[in-house]
Design a protein that fits this description.
The chain is α/β, with parallel strands linked by helices. It has helices at 3-11, 35-40, 55-58, 64-67, 77-89, 102-114, 130-148, 179-188, 235-242, 253-261, and strands at 24-29, 45-49, 70-72, 96-100, 153-164, 171-175, 191-199, 205-210, 220-221, 229-231. The chain has one domain: Rossmann fold. Helix 6 packs across helix 7 (130-148).
Length: 264
């Protein structure tokens, strides 16, 4: 190995004490449970809004100065790649990026695969073939891995779906992604949380997150610090636990949560 290569490698090394504490998390649930709300309550977030609507974000407007939320809406996978390179450059003040949601990005990517000029013209542009699913799975794997490796907190949201075993009829609740992609993405991230609602005191509905597998629900927590889960979770609180307090919870978080409940 030549001296120039050795110096280049040396320049990329850093002491472990200088490595910034970050986490990568996948939140999945049925629609309307509060994934975006939980994710947006995080350190200086950039929400990559692929869902189309902005209603779920309106509740934060009165707290914009406190939360410093920024939103960008990509129109293509190329836009997503450009956003990645912007974040990779480090020329920004964002500390968390939220891809909302992988289910919608998967659809966007497949739409592009189907109209690719290199695709065999004899195939229907509205009907994916086996090779189209394979190509889309590979595209999505690369995209998820590149974002996951950014030096910041990375959150992926996803709708929940069912996977039925054809042999024994058992059902698993998983992120609504192509099967091979689903397995890959769940392996890439540190935390997989399933969000749901349940009855609480005085018949009030509680949002909960499951961070360990239970029954048909798939979840995981590599940090081992989140237990089985949390009530009314926010990323601030999850990251606070994962980092042993290195990421602080804002003093006005309870007030923000109370105000947000008025929109439910």
């Amino acid at each position: 190995m030549d001296e120039k290569t050795l110096e280049k490698l040396k320049s990329k090394m850093t002491g472990i004490e200088d490595v910034k504490e970050t986490s990568n998390i996948l939140l999945y649930s049925d629609a309307g449970i509060g994934k975006t709300t939980a994710a947006a309550l995080s350190p200086k977030p950039l929400i990559i809004n692929c869902e189309g609507g902005t209603m779920s974000l309106n509740k934060f407007k009165s707290f914009h100065k406190d939360l410093d939320i920024k939103v960008v809406k990509p129109e293509s996978i190329k836009d997503l790649q450009d956003i990645f390179w912007y974040l990779k450059s480090g020329k920004h003040d964002r500390e968390t990026v939220i891809l909302d949601s992988l289910t919608e990005i998967q659809t966007m990517s497949m739409d592009e695969v189907l109209v690719d000029p290199k695709r065999d013209a004899k195939f229907d542009k509205d009907t994916p073939m086996l090779q189209d699913y394979g190509k889309n799975t590979n595209r999505m794997r690369k995209l998820v891995r590149t974002f996951r490796d950014l030096p910041m907190n990375v959150v992926f949201t996803c709708l929940a779906g069912e996977d039925k075993d054809e042999n024994d009829g058992s059902v698993k609740i998983l992120p609504e992604l192509m099967p091979k992609l689903c397995n890959s993405v769940m392996g890439y991230v540190d935390v997989v949380g399933y969000m749901f609602t349940a009855g609480g005191k005085d018949d009030k509905t509680l949002r909960k997150i499951l961070t360990q597998p239970k029954g048909k629900y798939k979840a995981k927590d590599r940090s081992g610090k989140l237990g089985m889960g949390m009530e009314n979770p926010t990323l601030f609180e999850m990251l606070n636990k994962i980092t042993d307090g290195a990421i602080e919870i804002p003093e006005n978080l309870d007030k923000i949560l109370e105000e947000i409940k008025k929109f439910d």
